[in-house]
Amino acid sequence: MNTGLQAIRERMAEYLNSCGVRAVTAWPGETRSRLEEPVVVVSLRGCKAGPAGFQDYLGERYNQETGMWEELYGRKAEITFGLDLYDGRDGDGARLQTSFDALSQALTQGGPEGLALVEFSCGETDYDPSARLLRRKAEAVCQACLYAVAQEGGLFTDFTLRGEMKG
Fold it and tell me: Radius of gyration (Cα) for the chain, nearest Å?
């Protein structure tokens, strides 16, 4: 299993695929096949993290499995995803528009667990000469809380990504 930011990119791609939007992560380390349908390429364009509590302390929780109290430490994070859509040059971009509409719907109906959508934007469809494909650049800014669990004595046991609920 990948950790860190790679896992966040994969989480977004998995979520989009589960919503019927074909998505892959950028720079997967494998050869890409010829595009038969539009695809969203998920990349990270930015990540800003800041404090969520005094010295990143968020409080305690009781762990039912271990019967012990655990301390929580964490930071708020703003993650900017590149969600660029690509399609073969055949056609007028109508398939790309349909794929973008599906992407918009998937993001506005909730998004991946732990990531709360703050902003979503896109540019116009153009031709990318280096890839020889039609492209529409899109971006999603999500807010999350990255936190770690510490047992007595300060040993960190788990790192988790949590979103903020909007009321």
Answer: 19
